[in-house]
Design goal:
It comes from Bacillus suaedaesalsae. Helices cover 46% and strands 17% of the residues. With 260 residues, the protein is α+β, with helices and mostly antiparallel strands.
């Protein structure tokens, strides 16, 4: 990264799973750099969903480097996820026609539940696991029988990973949602369900959704549970592939709690 900014800049890894993010500082100037970030970062920046994009540079090898303003602030803690600003920003994302148009232009098509289930059922992992793992067998059956109860909805841009670590609150109280590599066009219940199930007590779901701008009804309840079970099954598979036995065991216990 030194040859992009100059030797006077101090550059250090910013962490993360991909190892493609960096901090850069020179005197009072601070930047967040990333290699091959989401191709619709410019729209996210224009919408105020991520920190401001300053420049984009394409390297000779085809890689694209983006630089954003580095803002002093903090990641949200689990307890912060009840904040109305979180609900309001998620609604803004789901309501954005600009984001949807951009994602569709770069080739993203709506992820429909019947297609997600079909891919899961044809996976060799779940074919094998459903034979000897009772919870996975019950979960897959729940997804099958639950398909007919899922009503047609308006597909929107979903983030896909609303973990509290991806939410930033600046020192000037600006809220941002970062790490858009897994963005998709899908049922908004994917984001909403994972957030509510992970962070908000059920008795407060109605209050949180009021800040988001909708009411809790039977359709949303069913769709949220369907997608949470689906995503939990994917987590079990992922932890198995990564040989993370402790996390896999936790996910299996969580799946059982969803089915009880």
């Amino acid at each position: 990264m030194d040859y992009i900014l100059g030797e006077e800049w101090e550059i250090s890894p910013a962490g993360g799973a991909t190892g493609e993010a960096y901090f850069a500082q020179h005197n009072d100037k601070k930047l967040f750099l990333k290699r091959n970030s989401s191709p619709f970062l410019a729209v996210l920046s224009a919408e105020g969903i991520v920190p401001k994009l300053i420049w984009t540079k394409r390297l000779e090898n085809g890689d694209v480097i983006t630089a954003q303003h580095w803002l002093d602030g903090r990641e949200l803690k689990p307890v912060d996820m009840h904040m109305k600003e979180v609900a309001m920003l998620l609604n803004k994302i789901h309501s954005s026609k600009e984001l949807l148009d951009m994602l569709m232009r770069i080739g993203k098509s709506p992820l429909k539940p019947e297609e997600l289930l079909q891919d899961m059922e044809t996976s060799s992992y779940f074919k094998l696991e459903s034979v000897h793992n009772h919870s996975i067998k019950i979960a897959l059956n729940y997804l099958r029988t639950g398909l007919e109860k899922i009503e047609d909805v308006e597909y929107v841009v979903c983030h896909g990973d609303i973990n509290h670590n991806n939410w930033l609150l600046s020192n000037t109280n600006q809220m941002f949602l970062i790490d858009w590599d897994g963005a998709m066009v899908a049922d908004p219940a994917i984001d909403i369900g994972m957030l509510l199930y992970s962070y908000i007590p059920e008795e407060r779901w109605g209050e949180w959704l009021a800040h988001y701008g909708i009411e809790l009804d039977v359709s949303l309840m069913h769709r949220m549970k369907w997608y949470v079970i689906y995503q939990t099954l994917l987590s079990i598979q992922w932890f198995e592939e990564k040989k993370s036995s402790e996390q896999k065991h936790y996910a299996e216990n969580y799946l059982q709690s969803l089915l009880d």
